[in-house]
Design brief:
416 residues, alpha+beta, six-stranded antiparallel β-sheet, two-stranded antiparallel sheet, 11 helices, 28% helix, disordered N terminus
């Protein structure tokens, strides 16, 4: 029973092997292997391959890392085997061992692009210079005609002139801009002055000329106010108030000055002389103020003022101005012997000489008159200084000069 059962099982296995697809494969030694366990046929080294043996699988199946052939233009043949893609013109033929379509370099069908040839510069006497060995070329020379646009015939690209210095520096640009702006400002200023027809010097001359006509264009009450306030004009900074008692008729300078003073004033001439006499609040002092309008120009007035300053003519007793004594006033007895203190000021911004002379109202004479410049100094002990007559002359002359300058414009001199 055991042997019979063993034979039965062996026969079943043989039947199963015989009924399997493809059937058993018999090797060279006559042994049969089961097709269920064996996937590929076995080969022995040195044994020829049978004609009916199955072909080996594709490279993509054996090597999964290889590039797939699906979707790369490889169409399967009628038997299922892939066909090689069509070869491009100029591409090398595929070898029998290749089964995939790979990229191959395509040989250029046209001639290679020649290297650019440098344009030789002209040598001496217009002859072309010897070729440079660094630019030698053994390949074919391009003899096709070339056309250039925008350049004259025979233009040498290597000999193109280049600007000197490269880009302009920021400092140079800034300097050029400042120069242009400066020239523009100067030109505008000159043009504006020319169009206005009046320069700074012309304006000064106009004011100077205008001041010479104030004697008939300004009312006398503005040149010699009826009451003049002298705040801090007295000794020790005390306030003073002067009241006008008489105004002399305007006229020439005949008999208005001593002979020596008239000689000193002669270079500037005499256009008009205006005079007025004032008294203080106590009517103890009298003071005559005069405005001499000259015929001189600015240069002559400047020369006269310089002479008074250098030679000290304003402090000389023999150059004292004469007072104006009005009848029936407190100044009726104010004559030459009663002169106690005086001041003379030559203006340079107007053709005017301002002067003042003071004395006592009771008619007393003065043996030693003193200029106001010295009488107002601290510590002066002379009789005119102790009585304050220097402050009377200086303070009243300053206020009248200020009233005159109000009609001329902004003063260039400031009275003390």
């Amino acid at each position: 029973m055991a042997e019979r059962g063993g034979d039965a099982r062996s026969g079943a296995r043989r039947d199963t092997a015989a009924s399997s697809p493809g059937g058993p494969t018999t090797a060279g030694d006559g042994r049969a292997d089961s097709g269920a366990r064996t996937r590929y046929p076995r080969f022995r080294l040195g044994e020829p391959r049978s004609a009916d043996a199955a072909p080996p699988p594709r490279a993509s199946a054996r090597f999964p890392d290889s590039a797939p052939t699906v979707g790369r233009g490889v169409a399967p043949s009628a038997g299922g085997a892939p066909q090689a893609p069509p070869r491009r013109p100029g591409a090398p033929a595929q070898t029998p061992t290749e089964t995939t379509a790979r990229l191959r370099p395509v040989a250029a069908e046209t001639e290679p692009e020649p290297r650019p040839q440098p344009v030789p510069s002209s040598g001496p006497a217009g002859r072309p210079a010897a070729p440079d060995p660094a630019f030698s070329w053994s390949g074919p020379v391009d003899t096709r005609p070339r056309v250039s646009f925008g350049e004259p015939e025979g233009y040498d690209a290597l000999a193109r002139p280049r600007p000197l210095g490269g880009r302009p520096r920021p400092q140079a640009v800034a300097a050029a801009v400042c120069l242009v702006l400066g020239v523009g400002l100067l030109t505008g200023a000159v043009t504006g002055s020319w169009l206005a027809g009046d320069s700074g010097d012309d304006g000064a001359r106009s004011a100077f000329t205008e001041a010479g006509d104030l004697w008939h264009s300004v009312p006398v009450d503005q040149l010699f106010p009826p009451t003049v306030q002298g705040k801090g004009a007295g000794p020790g900074g005390a306030d003073r108030t002067w009241t006008r008692v008489a105004v002399a008729p305007d006229g020439d300078c005949g008999g208005a000055f001593d002979r020596l003073l008239a000689k000193v004033l002669d270079p500037v001439g005499c256009s008009r002389l205006l005079r007025a006499t004032y008294t203080d609040a106590t009517q103890s002092h009298v003071t005559t103020v005069g405005l001499l309008f000259t015929k001189a120009d600015a240069a002559a007035m400047t020369a006269l003022a310089s002479r008074f300053e250098k030679e000290g003519l304003g402090r000389r007793e023999d150059l004292m101005p004469l007072p104006y004594a009005a009848k029936d006033t407190v100044a009726a007895g104010f004559g030459a012997p009663q002169r106690a203190s005086w001041t003379v000021s030559v203006l340079t911004d107007a053709p005017v000489v301002v002067y003042a002379v003071s004395g006592w109202a009771d008619g007393r004479t003065v043996d030693e008159p003193e200029p106001a410049e010295e009488a107002i100094e601290s510590g002066a002990t002379s009789a005119p200084a102790q009585a304050g007559l220097g402050h009377e002359a200086q303070g009243l002359a300053d206020r009248v000069e200020r009233a005159l300058r109000k009609h001329v414009g902004a003063p260039t001199e400031h009275p003390s």
